[in-house]
Amino acid sequence: MVGGGPDAFIGEVHRKAARMDGGIEIVAGCFSRHKKKSEETGRLLRLDPSRVYSNFEQLAEKEERLPEGARADFVSVVTPNNSHFPIAKTLLGSGFHVMCEKPMTFTVEEARELQKLVKQSGKVFGLMHNYTGYPMVKLARDMVRGGELGEIRKIVVQYPQGWLATPIEKTGSVQARWRTDPAQSGAAGALGDIGTHCENLSEYITGLRITKVCADVTTFVKGRRLDDDANCLLRFENGARGILHVSQIAIGEENNLAIWIYGSKKSLEWHQEDPNCLHVKEPDGPARVYRRGNPYVAKRSSAAARATRLPSGHPEAFIEAFANLYRNFADSIRASLARKKPDPLAADFPGVDDGLRGMLFIDTVLASAKSTDKWTSMLS
Amino acid sequence: MVGGGPDAFIGEVHRKAARMDGGIEIVAGCFSRHKKKSEETGRLLRLDPSRVYSNFEQLAEKEERLPEGARADFVSVVTPNNSHFPIAKTLLGSGFHVMCEKPMTFTVEEARELQKLVKQSGKVFGLMHNYTGYPMVKLARDMVRGGELGEIRKIVVQYPQGWLATPIEKTGSVQARWRTDPAQSGAAGALGDIGTHCENLSEYITGLRITKVCADVTTFVKGRRLDDDANCLLRFENGARGILHVSQIAIGEENNLAIWIYGSKKSLEWHQEDPNCLHVKEPDGPARVYRRGNPYVAKRSSAAARATRLPSGHPEAFIEAFANLYRNFADSIRASLARKKPDPLAADFPGVDDGLRGMLFIDTVLASAKSTDKWTSMLS
Amino acid sequence: MVGGGPDAFIGEVHRKAARMDGGIEIVAGCFSRHKKKSEETGRLLRLDPSRVYSNFEQLAEKEERLPEGARADFVSVVTPNNSHFPIAKTLLGSGFHVMCEKPMTFTVEEARELQKLVKQSGKVFGLMHNYTGYPMVKLARDMVRGGELGEIRKIVVQYPQGWLATPIEKTGSVQARWRTDPAQSGAAGALGDIGTHCENLSEYITGLRITKVCADVTTFVKGRRLDDDANCLLRFENGARGILHVSQIAIGEENNLAIWIYGSKKSLEWHQEDPNCLHVKEPDGPARVYRRGNPYVAKRSSAAARATRLPSGHPEAFIEAFANLYRNFADSIRASLARKKPDPLAADFPGVDDGLRGMLFIDTVLASAKSTDKWTSMLS
Amino acid sequence: MVGGGPDAFIGEVHRKAARMDGGIEIVAGCFSRHKKKSEETGRLLRLDPSRVYSNFEQLAEKEERLPEGARADFVSVVTPNNSHFPIAKTLLGSGFHVMCEKPMTFTVEEARELQKLVKQSGKVFGLMHNYTGYPMVKLARDMVRGGELGEIRKIVVQYPQGWLATPIEKTGSVQARWRTDPAQSGAAGALGDIGTHCENLSEYITGLRITKVCADVTTFVKGRRLDDDANCLLRFENGARGILHVSQIAIGEENNLAIWIYGSKKSLEWHQEDPNCLHVKEPDGPARVYRRGNPYVAKRSSAAARATRLPSGHPEAFIEAFANLYRNFADSIRASLARKKPDPLAADFPGVDDGLRGMLFIDTVLASAKSTDKWTSMLS
What is the ipTM of this complex? Predict the structure, then answer.
């Protein structure tokens, strides 16, 4: 692992998720740019001190030299956005498979280059768009892509949060500080941090690409240097209309990612804070509440079944969704090590192409925000 | 009453709402352009046959001649949109107070003229934006306008419906037929029918005017002549951002009008299909669920208390909200008859100014939909 | 109407419900034992002063003498429990149809006598178990009685309220005062006021009679003379098990009447505070949320369709359920006046037999509460 | 670990929960009475084959001989109920700390003996009443025990499931087979499996002991040898009244454990299927929805804060609650190994005394079910 030191949030989530199923073990890491902090985390994780590194270059170099079987199979990159690219590039260069946090890179150019590097390397590259790991999201995808909703007409996706409603980046919040710092986060704030999840979730479920964006992007908190709110109209490649809105100043909202997809035959609705339910609606019949863990879900979606650990009524949540990405990612690496094609179900995790989409989305929204034209096209 | 014959929907809702509290009695009407249908409704309502009229001009003329006390005090206009203006104009001219369905007129020009006529006449004019009649909407308004939410930053308002997801206007639905017919509905479909409710609800609660609109307006059902879906970005006069979206092709949605208002201090959320609750959220405290009929609601809002008939837990709903507008409207007429100023709480119902706002909103959204510019200004 | 004066709650609910549909007009009344109060209410209702009476005997006598057509067709009895019987008896004796509040009488003996009197009189007698008026309760009944749930195995029914958690009967609450006064309410407090609704709702939906009761009845508030909490185990005639619990000291609960019915094939669930939904659950399929006003509901239940005024998504609530009982009651009277059999759908309202069941239920629970035996049989 | 082989359900849940935080490693086990199955699981877990045992006696004997540091520190017992006692007894005798599934033993006598053995051994003994591991349950406990609800008056606790509504024990369900087999499960079916969770949760949150029970226990499915439904009235030591009901034939219910606690000042409500919320209600104020992960929760309950891994809005669920028990249990073992007193917060997990309470509860309910007396006392 690179990143995930004492002040970090998401690194330990990666570790819990990776550990849960017993198929992944953490063996080495560079957890902070500060040697002492990195060592402190290494001790907490009971790692061999010789495999706790001071910087990622050292990690890449030294681990690469270890014999196969002893060396780390893959590296998770959980640092702030600005360092994803150089780290991932170095690791790929040293022959490691890579799991990377989103947004994938700092710029679109880096994303395009990383895409090339991944394809050239033949390594497995995962991107932690964790919400695609939820079983009911997979059921939704299988329903939509299987045609059950008919032609998709309208998509509404939102991700309101309230934690940055005041300038807590100035009063000691480490998480707030780097996320509102253009040098670490890139050109986008809320847009990059949570907007990309909306974009990814929409495209993951529907298989439809966003083609045009019309955006209104705002920084509400005085003195903040990046956006903390964004509202967008969308057009999709099949002509579907969309609304995407995210906020970090929506007081009282926690992590209220939700999506509504309206088709010509049926509709569906999913809420991240109630992740075990999928609401499916029909033109003239009672709405149905599909709930994770039931046989009728497994029958409809092998991917949902595979992503399920517990019977219905024993709720699963955020860490398990994370763990589902790790499980598929690890199984794909195992297939790669065995020189086999992975099971198509194991190949179901976001990768470098999704990462490029995310960067293009950020770019397009920011361009639209500055434009007086209604529509800005999103490149592919 | 003008309108509300055998095939009508909203006319009987007006009658139920008007009757409920015992302060209003229906004494005369022209319920249809077809004499037989008008008479049929008149019989059902046990009206004096001499006061069931064949057309609204006759109603205005004959009722005007009746002595005060015997003649109708006011007339409700519940016809399709295209006839609101000529009927209201005639009735005002004959000295009647008028309650009118929304959208108020067929065009902005008519709306401006009606505004003048109402002001000149001195008559009481009510517009049936019924959702403002809900007690929890009034509590929301009093909280927002009282400053409890701080500066308003963001407003999300939606009204998805699914009933027009297929072309039922071609298969016998009377309600669908006139609503999708430009000759009867005007230039807008969903936008006029339900979009104006969103616009009105936002402005009613916040007291903030929409200044700019960026709209994506769509007709999804082939052969339909008016819009059945609209997505808008909004700007409000204080700089607040907004999203407004309505649909009539959102399968499985019934009447899912809902509003989220985010301030710098607190947020709130209200759902028309669960109208007895108002959710209020704080930056660092548990969300609070205010419920209609409780003493703590009455303490916070005299308007909510006045709009409440039953104790908490005995749910009130759509017809009662309608009835609240009628009650305030009737009390204002009583004050007018007594040549007194109405109680300010009784003056709390939408009127001709709101009707003009609604028509301007439709106009602006349709202009924006055709424009390649991002923002279209909304006149006042 | 007898009762429903200035301090009353339920009388005005009866009037609103009766008025709403335009088929019932209030023409006479005795609204209070205090002449002035009765007159005050009469004036508010704009009644002919000669038909506002000082006591119910006078009302019965004078109205009886009026010519048919002029005289009241029926009388609603909305007084405290102790006077229901003498009033209803007198009114039936004078040839009036009667609508009566629940619990029907003061004692089981009165209930049995009233049952006889009603049968002898041939008059229409309605009992205001208003919750049976909800459309989704009617759908539930039609589903259960139609066999869709299979054999009924278990019924859980509850009615928690919190309004009597402190001794507000001592600090001026008129509603609390008579409800906690044995001289006015009878032998039961919460049990009579809300327990009878639970009993009635269970039997109405399932058509199964309670045969045995095991009860734990408590008065939590010091100095209170009647029960404010009751928990019961039930046995039904078919062997089904049940739980029934009511409370008036359950702080924060408003009117949380709810019922869960578990069959050998399906289950269902209904909540009075969310009355437009009926939840139906299957062994291996997603739960279905039936919502009032949809065509698929009308197809399944003519009774639900008849009890529906508004399309789906326009919520209906408490007063409308009340009005449904009044409408059926009035239609049955119309049939009686026309010497016809009423439409079976119009005959769907609780009557004197249900009233006797309620009184037997109270008696049985109170006997069980005092008994050291587990089971106490409920007579029929 | 003893138990948790290929057909097991709960064993792997234990492993996932134990692994998640990185503080516990599985090093040895006897996963099945069938050697091959035990080895199969051992391989899946990548254990040293020499530490995969054929029976628990062997495990105890061989692991005991390993040097400290190498030997397992504790053993989790996740077998069917009938073997808990002999296994736990042997393990304690060999000096192991023990984590045991519930119900703790087969009989009350075994439970009393195990209580003695644990106290004599000085070992740490944990009982997997996992629902006490949820942060919002800990918040509830701290609120109730801190007096915020006033005197507790009424407790309603339920655990309906539907998975045994048909005789699936006859058609291949391994989980159903042992749970409905008296030889493996003991005298109780649903009562032991889920009834004990209700009993434990009530006593954990309130600190009040059940003193009397009145039970109606049923087997609905023909041919089944143990109960699949139980309804109980309860009395608590302080005079509070209670209702406890469980079912495994409640079609459509998944794992709907829920509790309502009504005090003289406030009430609260928690639902296992929505575990991140705690509803707190007041006599005259809006209900409050406390949500896990917020600073205001941490301020109120150190135990809740300690049991929280993720910020608010990132839902946590079943496995995390399990993991919380494991974390506290492991920290207590660490303290024991260090010959220190554990942090009081680490001592917060159910133990042998709770296990005895559970067995007494089963015994009392079954005695009540056979008795014609209303109340059966629960011994302590």
Answer: 0.96
